[in-house]
Amino acid sequence: xxxxxxxxxxxxxPSLGKRWLRDAIGVILIIATGLAGYWLLPDNLALLTRxxxxxxxxxxxDLITGYCGVATLGQAALFGAGAYAAGIACVNGVTExxxxxxxGAVAGAAAGLLMGSVMLRAHGLAQLVLSIAIVQLFHEAANxxxxxxxxxxxxxxxxxxxxxxxxxxxxxxxxxxxxxxTLLVVVITALKFVVSSPFGMLCRGIKEDPIRxxxxxAFVFPVLLKMFVISGAVAGMGGALAAISTQVxxxxxxxxxxxxxxxxxxxxxxxxxxYGAIVGTVIFMGFEHxxxxxxxxxxxxxxxxxxxxxxxAAPGGxxxxxxxISGAGKDARGGRA
Amino acid sequence: MSELFRVEGLxxxxxxxxxxxxxxxxxxxxxxxxxIGPNGAGKTTFVNLVAGQIKPGAGRVVLDGEDITGLxxxxxxxxxxxxxxxxxxxxxxxxxxxxxxxxxxxxxxxARRIMSRFTGNPNVADEVxxxxxxxxxxxxxxxxxxxxxxGQQRLLEIGIALALRPKVLLLDEPxxxxxxSDTPRIEQALERLxxxxxxxxxxxxxxxxxxxxxxxxxxxxxxxxxxxxPSQVAANEKVREAYLGNYAHARSVA
Amino acid sequence: MLRPSIDxxxxxxxxxxxxxxxxxxxxxxxxxxxxxxxxxxxxxxxxMRVVNLAHGAFAMIAGYIASYAARDLGLAYAVAIFLAIIGxxxxxxxxxxxxxxxxxxxxxxxxxxxxxxxxxxxxxxTNYFFGPTLKTIPLPGSLSQPVDVGFKTIAAHRLFVxxxxxxxxxxxxYLIERTDFGIKLRATVDNAAMADALGVRTQVVYxxxxxxxxxxxxxxGVVGAEFLPIEPYYALRYMVTFLVVVSVGGAGSIPGAVxxxxxxxxxxxxxxxxxxEFGNFFFYxxxxxxxxxxxxxxxxxxx
Lengths: 337, 254, 303
Prior knowledge:
The complex is a heterotrimer of chains A (337), B (254) and C (303).
Chain A: H1 15-40, H2 45-67, H3 76-91, H4 97-119, H5 124-144, H6 146-149, H7 174-195, H8 198-208, H9 210-215, H10 221-246, H11 256-269, H12 275-292, H13 296-313, H14 317-333
Helix pairs in contact in A: 1-7, 2-7, 2-10, 2-11, 2-12, 3-4, 3-5, 3-10, 4-10, 7-10, 11-12, 11-14
Chain B: E1 3-14, E2 17-28, E3 32-36, H1 43-51, E4 58-63, E5 66-67, H2 73-79, E6 81-83, H3 96-107, H4 122-134, H5 150-163, E7 168-172, H6 183-191, E8 198-202, H7 206-212, E9 215-220, E10 223-228, H8 230-233, H9 237-244
Parallel strand pairs in B: 3-8, 3-9, 6-7, 7-8
Antiparallel strand pairs in B: 1-2, 1-4, 4-5, 9-10
Chain C: H1 17-47, H2 55-72, H3 77-98, H4 108-130, H5 141-144, E1 146-148, E2 153-155, H6 156-178, H7 180-190, H8 192-197, H9 202-223, H10 234-237, H11 239-249, H12 254-274, H13 281-293
Antiparallel strand pairs in C: 1-2
């Protein structure tokens, strides 16, 4: 190793431009795929809108688990909080769709704050158990508070007023779908912004080594709690979208099963990339739609086998596989970006 | 010069085992002190106590006139008491530039912000460059830590510590695990440490100790058995006994 | 989940000593059934540091085997239990060799995902072979009788479960503290690499411990079927309960598991008797409270 004279300088960051480009391409791909879905599958728009709503939930899990390293099986509590908040507001006269989404975001954020405050008190298995207990608690609460939530029947017949007074939410679901797609694009752009901020870097550090972060003079708890709030807002918006587009809110939106399925979708697509969340959701729900109609228990076996396969063979999910392939390509061309 | 940092009567026991017994020492600004001792003497425990990672059974830690004994490790860092780790603790997927940038942002209180950008602040970038260049890490500044040689990682540990603008720096075996061909780089980095900084270094590498330290403290079985000039260490009876046991009194074999 | 052994509507308003005793007995029996199932999970987590979310699935498999043996084949209850334990352990052996061994040192999320995957597969396969309906395990006449213990009449089955629990606790304690295998087990828990260097065949220790853990789950699944009915979703439905017991009791601690099981059994049973309209709400609220107060468990090893 030689001594470098202090007069040498670091070149200006070239990779920044490349990252903007990659993000822009990603967003364009999402828009393109979304519009393709709109034109190719006009009869399935309700399903596609639900896919988008779930994708928001899976994104929220990616924030907590993929970027901060906190494993959770209770995220559906935040999704359900948003769904029920939007549903209850709608039943009580608030029918403007953007307001409902905002209500869902706030409810989800509040639930996220609560969930984070409880979960972050523990570590490891105890933390995971808390996440499960919380979602079950929310489930029971939604079940028992039937005056507000409709109990096991849920809320139905939510009448949402037309978007901007013009676009009606009708049975064809066109408005709902394009609305959802726009929401997804806005959210993912905002999240890309968040994860490339200093806050995002701090979260990545916490995931890998919280002791080092503390030794840098940063407290860990407030950062994680902040991420729980953001994650909750995203999940809550997904729940509100589901409520608006399907016009019902049921107990399944606040279930342990939904949390577990969403985690599987994330693992399938790959943690820590945001795009992986969307890819995983689309593929999982696509297959579920096809296979589950045949026999729901066969579907369960397939998901189980898939999980085992991913853990053994492709721990980074599909994103990991993609990175490995493109990384190999880069190395062949010589040098990292 | 007045005293910058003082430890009084630090005591720590794990169960029945007294790991630190009544340790007291003080340092002035700009001092270079080496803490040595045989394995198991309690050197790393001492650093953990001072840095706030573990709570003492008794004793005080005073920094710049302020009693910081009640503060946790994070707050001590913010007061200017910084440590490095014996086994490197770095983020394998991040680059040295990112490590130091994050540290600088954290020091300025901007690490938690969402609205600002991580890169692109010229003041921060200048400071980061300065630190990396002092340590000779400019040419690997954009490689991930996982790709760096261990010696370079140890330098980055020091770099992070410097980015925090510490008043007192506790180096836990900075040359540990580094191949001897790379030790000169570590030495160079140590020579370039800011002169006003009080540095306490734990080390086993005696060459490094003699070249770096103005004062040596020897720890054995949890207590200080010697404090003085480096040249006096080898001759001291107690030190020889601590390291060599019964062989301390043996005659040399011709 | 639990069928109360008395009819509350038939008694006069207010809670009599009889009611309290009935609740206590049910809670104790339920707690013991939980203990038998969960102590194996506690072992797996404490020793091999594997978060085995599929533990309940093995208890379920045993229930199915016993149900099939007792109902469809007409075998005696004791034989059914024996077959269930052996059968479940045999099924678990290839899973341990092929899957569990690969995740012994892995991060927690990886283990969670793998074992959830195993659980899902088992649920799907079980449903394929046995259908979605609830399977009962017919008790022999001797266990269906009420037994008069002087101050109270208790269903014999409850006593049987309690006895099993106590025997398991004592037997395990003896195994771990007083036998050769127990020494090797404790050495491997403390320092696997060192134990290996000293000649302890750690892979064998792991395999045997895993088999014991699964065997106990199997036993618990069968004798506890009165409390935890056997149906395909059993593995998911009670996953939280089993995990809570282990994280509250502390992984690897027998006394901790006993305390946690009895406590949670009491909370659940009391909730069901006194406030059935609230369902599981208070159970989960209690779980959250307990885990928050004791994040490292009552008596287990610090993580």
